[in-house]
Write a structure and sequence with these properties.
InterPro entries: Cyt_c-like_dom, Cyt_c-like_dom_sf. By secondary structure, the protein is an all-alpha fold. The protein is elongated.
């Protein structure tokens, strides 16, 4: 009796899944090796409330795709909810951009 189903389709599916997993692991390793300047700024300015990188945060952050520079800057400068506003003396525009890039990378998850 001939087996049912197309084994080549299953093989492609499994291979594609394997490649996706390897790519995700490689990307995460790259982030952990060089998180960029935003990681240091996050530790200095944000970690007190949002938690240290790799730990469960005190105040949850939005999903990484929600971190466009304008939204992050508006949130930092104007505050939001329980989050206070931060002046340019506390964090510069360049530092905000670096933190936004760091957050988009998914590194603080």
């Amino acid at each position: 009796m001939k087996p049912r189903g197309d084994w080549s389709a299953w093989a492609c599916l499994v291979a594609g899944y394997g490649v996706s997993v390897l790519a995700a692991v490689s990307a995460q390793a790259a982030i952990q090796q060089d998180p960029g300047p935003g990681a240091a700024v996050f530790q200095r300015v944000c970690a007190g409330c949002h938690g240290e990188v790799g730990r469960t945060p005190v105040v949850r952050l939005p999903r990484p795709f929600e971190y466009d520079n304008e939204l992050v800057e508006a949130t930092v400068r104007d505050g939001r909810g329980e989050m206070p506003a931060f002046s340019a003396g506390q964090i510069s525009d360049a530092e905000i951009d670096a933190v936004a890039a760091f957050l988009r990378s998914g590194a603080p998850r």
